[in-house]
């Protein structure tokens, strides 16, 4: 098959795949329905303070797998729903940030700086329109970058990296994630170490289960679902409960502000914010392609670069950044939304998750089977059909449809999602906890899995208490098996050479990069502490 044939086959897998239902005799593709449902769910979740896209992805994944089963046909509907949540949550996070000065997601904090002042000026609907246009524009740009770059990255890795180099690349990825995420590089390294220890319990290829303390409960190891949902979701809920306890006497009624004046987004205003959208889209796409950095840094950097541009080119009498400038909303929303596509470049090209949302994409493929993210998925073969490559182009088609939904209906869904801002956390958190344990039990119907989930939840809570990010733990847990398998294969391929990591200049370069990354991060932390 030629490349164009694979693209067409991927589109057909979505459009002519299993039908969800018929409308006037026309079958409606299941994958497109799931993408649409995912976008709506994501917008509602993003608009709810205290929730986030990865939380919804974590809860929904086990339920979706239980419903669709473990077969290749389930991949596109499940991945389509998860992609829809990922895209919709970023868009929905702007709603409470603009209307109530309460970020729906962490990356939406920068949106409050100009979004809420616009609301206080009676221009909330215009601010939402700016956020919608900027967010979807950045997302679309990022997806185009993914479609172009992921095959190129995969082909480069497949051509130049063997087992020792791939092992060193995984070590570099974990070192980079540990260095850039969390309170400090030291805490990041501890988080990674804990994740590797957890994934190695009961595993390996030895006759006896390792690190199991002779108990049957640990002999089988921890499932990826119990560890990730426990650390990410249960830990976050427990921390939110503690924060609610401290803030119980500080809550007050929200100020009610009525819109007035022209709420339309004029052509002149669109042209005024277009350079900010373009600049932030490039920034967010570049940051998203680097594992572990995430949308918060993209939003902050996009906003700061936009502020510099605005100070040089602001028209006379126009509001500055922080005073209700629509350019500020545009710069932030374009930056954080443009991460969503490019963060799948390391996922599809290398099999390495770059953030929490990408973790659940890999988790879905591992759980269902039939698709292994990494360089091999982009092998173009003429005589034998590469079904994984067909699935990739099917996934790209689902992403384009998600963008289409955001372009056409996203603005209306954002306005409708304002009701979610008023749901009190005291009501929301028990529901999230119940859904999490239900999802775990649906995947693994045993009390042991619930106890493991709760234990990992307590670990996640303690990590947050000491300002240690749980994300390095999660990514290390996901990559731990791949790291071990790659190291074993490299050891075998080099004839049992214990120094296989130093067998090529590429692997030595990756190892040196790991050390340099951590050292530079530690020095930067020391410098910041000295200046403070």
Short description:
The protein is mainly α and 532 residues long. It is built from 22 helices and 2 strands. The model is unreliable at 249-253 (pLDDT under 50).
Question: What distinguishing features does this structure have?
Answer:
532 residues; mainly alpha; 22 helices; 2 strands; globular; membrane; transmembrane helix; transmembrane
Question: Could you explain the architecture of this structure?
Answer:
By secondary structure, this protein is an all-alpha fold. It has one domain. The protein is built from 22 helices and 2 strands. The protein has helices at 3-15, 30-46, 53-68, 75-92, 94-100, 109-120, 124-160, 163-180, 185-200, 216-219, 224-247, 267-288, 295-313, 326-337, 339-342, 345-350, 356-368, 387-416, 425-443, 447-465, 471-493, 505-531, and strands spanning 19-23, 26-29. A two-stranded antiparallel ribbon has the order 1-2. The longest helix is centred in the first third of the chain and has 37 residues, at 124-160. It is globular. Keywords: Membrane, Transmembrane, Transmembrane helix. Residues 32-475 form the DUF112 domain.
């Amino acid at each position: 098959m030629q490349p164009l044939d694979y693209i067409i086959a991927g589109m057909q897998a979505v459009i002519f795949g299993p039908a969800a239902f018929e409308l006037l005799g026309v079958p409606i593709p299941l994958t497109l329905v799931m993408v649409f449902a995912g976008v709506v769910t994501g917008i509602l979740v993003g608009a709810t303070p205290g929730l986030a896209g990865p939380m919804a992805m974590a809860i929904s994944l086990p339920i979706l797998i239980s419903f669709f089963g473990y077969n290749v046909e389930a991949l596109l509907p499940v991945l389509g729903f998860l992609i829809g949540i990922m895209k919709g949550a970023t868009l929905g996070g702007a709603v409470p940030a603009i209307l109530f000065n309460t970020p729906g997601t962490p990356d939406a904090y920068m949106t409050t700086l100009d979004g809420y002042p616009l609301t206080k000026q009676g221009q909330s609907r215009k601010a939402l329109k700016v956020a919608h246009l900027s967010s979807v524009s950045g997302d679309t740009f990022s997806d185009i970058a993914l479609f172009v770059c992921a095959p190129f990255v995969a082909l480069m890795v497949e051509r130049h990296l063997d087992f020792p180099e791939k092992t060193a690349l995984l070590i570099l990825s974990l070192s980079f994630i540990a260095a850039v995420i969390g309170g400090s590089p030291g805490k990041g390294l501890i988080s990674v170490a804990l994740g590797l220890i957890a994934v190695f319990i009961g595993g390996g290829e030895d006759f006896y289960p390792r690190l199991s303390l002779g108990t049957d409960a640990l002999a089988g190891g921890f499932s990826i679902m119990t560890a990730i949902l426990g650390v990410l979701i249960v830990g976050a809920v427990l921390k939110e409960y503690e924060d609610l306890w401290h803030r119980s006497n500080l809550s007050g009624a929200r100020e009610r502000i009525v819109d007035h004046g022209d709420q339309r987004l004029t052509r002149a205003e669109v042209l005024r914010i277009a350079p900010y959208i373009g600049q932030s889209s490039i920034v967010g796409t570049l940051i998203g392609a680097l594992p572990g950095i995430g949308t918060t840094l993209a939003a902050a950097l996009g906003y700061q670069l936009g502020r510099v541009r605005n100070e040089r080119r602001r028209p006379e009498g126009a509001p500055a950044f922080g005073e209700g400038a629509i350019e500020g909303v545009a710069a932030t929303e374009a930056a954080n939304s443009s991460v969503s596509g490019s963060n799948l470049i390391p996922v599809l090209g290398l099999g390495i998750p770059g953030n929490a949302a990408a973790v659940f994409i890999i988790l879905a493929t591992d759980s269902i089977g039939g698709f292994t993210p990494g360089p091999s998925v982009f092998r173009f073969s003429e005589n034998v059909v590469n079904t994984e490559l067909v699935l990739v182009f099917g996934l790209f088609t689902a992403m384009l449809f998600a963008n289409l939904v955001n372009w056409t209906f996203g603005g209306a869904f954002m306005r409708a999602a304002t009701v979610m801002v008023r749901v009190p956390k005291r009501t929301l958190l028990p529901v999230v906890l119940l859904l999490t344990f239900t999802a775990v039990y649906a995947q693994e119907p045993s009390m042991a899995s619930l106890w493991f989930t709760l234990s990992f939840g307590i670990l996640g809570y303690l990590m947050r208490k000491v300002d240690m990010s749980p994300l390095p733990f999660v990514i290390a847990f996901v990559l731990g098996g791949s790291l071990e398998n790659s190291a074993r294969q490299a050891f075998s391929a080099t004839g049992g050479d214990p120094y296989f990591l130093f067998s090529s200049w590429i692997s030595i370069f990756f190892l040196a990069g790991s050390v340099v990354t951590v050292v530079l991060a530690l020095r930067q932390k020391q410098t910041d502490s000295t200046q403070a």
